[in-house]
Specification:
Layout (H helix, E strand, L loop, with lengths): L7 H12 L3 H14 L4 E7 L5 E6 L9 H4 L11 H5 L10 H7 L2 E7 L6 E4 L1 E3 L5 E3 L3 E3 L4 E7 L6 H5 L4 H17 L5 E6 L2 E6 L5 H12 L1 H5 L1 E8 L2 E8 L11 E5 L2 E2 L3 H11 L11 E6 L5 E2 L10 E2 L2 H17 L23 H12 L32 H14 L20 H12 L18 E6 L3 E5 L3 E6 H20 L3 E11 L2 H9 L1 H6 L3 E6 L2 E8 L7 H15 L4 H16 L10 H13 L13 E5 H7 L5
Parallel strand pairs: 1-9, 13-15
Antiparallel strand pairs: 1-2, 2-8, 3-4, 3-8, 4-7, 5-6, 9-10, 11-12, 12-15, 13-14, 16-17, 18-19, 19-20, 20-24, 21-23, 22-23
Helix pairs in contact: 1-5, 2-7, 10-11, 14-15, 15-19, 15-20
């Protein structure tokens, strides 16, 4: 077959295959045009899930009469004029393909009026028998300022595409989700969505934080707003703001995740990986976080022209973006403690009020990671002035059984630490030995005892209140200013112990253990180059890798905690992460899993009776420990029942 030029109508239909997938795609493109036109209010009318009719009306700047037909031509746009404009593009639509592509597979009518004209004009492209499009002269019409675009009989001339569409209900659900996504990034615009005669969504313009909260609640649900944090943080030319769900508000599917870059909804592997890592230590297995986050950066630092539908972007410095997202979200979740209200902004370094350089940001990130335990002399007024670290020691005053109880509590921690050179235990719960310095620190922490204040009426009631009883040897019941607090004592103590283990190991550094027989690992040349480039990173994590050949590595030392792991597979996974993201947390995650197991064995067990001072000490520890709202497995450690909720249970006042 000889080479020949494709006819214009076929070119448009091929482009429509890239841009117009279903009615939701049409709504997305037309809404973005309305937003770029400076609209303050947009009305969307849908019939039969968008298959029969889609009409979008806005009050934007409108299209002049002489440009109506030009707007339906390919690569015609008012948003860019040069390559420099493309590199700094800030508008949502700019490719000049949406309108002609949609018009080629539907019956379209455009009506518009600009502010300086009293008369509106309308135009409809006509499809000729050969498939080409013809444009009649615009006709006058009564129209308010703005533009109305009506799309009828989508895919009427492409029956093969129409066969792939789903049911009316399914198509409308996709369309409604698109409207919600766009509404979340344009709080200043009022949006109305109607399906048939039903008004399904009415969003008022939101110019303040209260209005934005209301819109997020309408779209994501009130439960999300009640269990989410608002953050606003800026550093190194990047700004992240929005709402992140608490780990206890997780989803079985990733269906409540909205991420925007300069107002554009996107799906990006760098972003997804960073968010997943930030939640890795607090989320229950198999669950997904919920969030509505907005990243802002200079337009020239992100390529939004990477895909025809503009769902994907490319960052100029993907590693910077990844680290910024991870550190910000990780610290925001870590700083959530019982003494901080959920609706207040988390205690992120610098409080998110000042701009920071990248060097300052890195220093703050390091300092924030060192702030795991707050010293006793920094306890706020109203809290119990002192706390005890080893709850079992308090049994000394309880009777002859105190020593046995203490031994039961500490046995789980002590069995994990086998001195170097000792024969390996045959137990399946064997834990590799740690350094002597680390073991000494843990021993000191476990055996130390601090007196608990006996006077609980010297100040304000602490956030988790004061213990009043223990239920079935499992739950601590406490009274605070709001009402009743119920604490899962094992889950809470597990998180406290786990955070201490991580802090102690970080201070003692990762101990490396040489292998008796170095392990040989076959890799690709690209992976070998990566291993050499990140040799210092591997060394800091306790690995010693040598390159024997372009496609062969030798593993000569591994972290002590991981000596019984599948080291070769771990190295391959780390190399894969480094090649794709420029960083990897796999080694740290493997070590954290071992520390988590140790913390689980070393925490107070069910049916272990605690005295009132011990319970109060546990509550005070929770108030100062990062991530204390969830145990190491992602389960909640405490819950609050207000007096009003208790009154409703017993129908008081009704």
């Amino acid at each position: 077959m000889s080479i020949k030029q494709l006819p214009p109508h076929l070119v448009n239909q091929i482009a429509a295959g890239e841009v117009v997938e279903r009615p939701a795609s049409v709504v997305k493109e037309l809404l973005e045009n309305s937003i770029d036109a400076g609209s303050k209010r947009i009305e969307i009318d849908i019939e039969q899930g968008g298959l029969k009719r889609i009409r979008i009306r806005d009050d934007g700047k409108g299209i002049p009469k002489e440009e109506l037909a030009l707007a339906l031509s390919r690569h015609a746009t008012s948003k860019i004029a040069s390559l420099d404009d493309l590199e700094h593009v800030a508008s949502l639509g700019f490719r000049g393909e949406a309108l002609p592509s949609i018009a080629s597979v539907s019956r379209m009518t455009i009506s518009s009026r600009t502010e300086d004209n009293e008369q509106g004009w309308t135009v409809s492209p006509q499809h000729r028998d050969d498939g080409a499009e013809a444009f009649d002269d615009p006709e006058p019409t009564a129209h308010a300022k703005g533009t109305t675009i009506e799309v009828r009989d989508l895919f009427y001339n492409v029956p093969a595409r129409r066969k792939f569409l789903k049911t009316e209900n399914t198509e409308f659900k996709h369309l409604q989700e698109v409207v919600k996504k766009i509404s979340l990034s344009n709080f200043q615009i009022g949006i109305t969505l109607r399906h048939g005669q039903r008004n399904l969504l009415t969003l008022q313009p939101a110019l303040e934080r209260v209005g934005a909260d209301r819109r997020v609640s309408e779209i994501c649900g009130p439960a999300f707003m009640e269990q989410s944090l608002y953050l606003d943080y800026e550093a190194a030319g990047l700004k992240l703001w929005g709402w992140v769900g608490l780990p206890t508000f997780s989803r079985s599917q990733a269906d409540l995740q909205y991420f925007y870059v300069n107002g554009r909804i996107i799906k990006d592997r760098v972003v997804t990986h960073a968010v997943r890592q930030a939640y890795s230590d607090v989320l229950f297995h198999g669950r997904h976080p919920a969030y509505a986050l907005f990243l802002e950066l200079a337009p020239e630092k992100v390529d939004v022209n990477a895909h025809p539908t503009k769902h994907e972007v490319r960052f100029r410095d993907a590693r910077l973006v990844h680290d910024f997202l991870y550190r910000t979200l990780h610290q925001a979740l870590a700083d959530v403690r019982p003494n901080e209200a959920a609706e207040s902004a988390p205690a992120i370094p610098n409080n998110g009020t000042e701009k920071m350089s990248m060097a300052e940001y890195n220093r703050e990130a390091i300092r924030s990671q060192q702030r795991l335990n707050i010293p006793v002399n920094n306890i706020q007024p109203g809290q119990v002035a002192e706390q005890m670290a080893a709850y079992q020691r308090m049994h000394d005053s309880a009777g002859d059984n105190s020593q046995n109880n203490a031994e039961n509590v500490t046995s789980g921690l002590n069995t994990g630490f086998i001195p170097s050179g000792s024969p390996r235990s045959s137990s399946s719960n064997y834990t590799p030995p740690l350094s002597d310095k680390f073991s000494e620190k843990l021993s000191t922490h476990v055996t130390s005892s601090m007196p608990v204040s006996e006077n609980q009426n010297t100040g304000e009631v602490p956030p988790l209140g004061f213990a009043v009883a223990q239920l079935h040897g499992i739950y601590i019941l406490a009274e605070n200013a709001e009402g009743l607090v119920v604490v899962d004592m094992h889950a809470a103590h597990e998180r406290i112990t786990y955070e201490y283990l991580k802090k102690s190991m970080a201070e003692d550094n990762v101990r490396s253990q040489p292998m008796l027989v170095p392990s040989s690992l076959s890799v690709s040349k690209k992976e070998g180059d990566c291993a050499e480039e990140f040799a210092e990173t591997f060394e800091q994590l306790g690995f010693e890798l040598n390159r024997l050949a372009p496609e062969k590595l030798a593993i000569r030392a591994v972290p002590s905690l991981l000596k019984d792991s599948n080291v070769e597979q771990l190295v391959r996974d780390v190399l894969s992460d480094l090649l794709e993201h420029g960083s990897s947390e796999r080694i740290q995650q493997e070590m954290n899993e071992i520390l988590s197991t140790m913390a689980c064995h070393g925490s107070v067990r069910a049916n272990h009776r605690l005295t009132i001072p011990e319970m109060n000490a546990l509550l005070r520890d929770m108030e100062r420990t990062e991530r204390s709202g969830q145990c190491n497995h992602g389960r909640p450690t405490w819950t609050q029942m207000s007096v009003d909720q208790l009154d409703k249970l017993f129908m008081r006042g009704q």
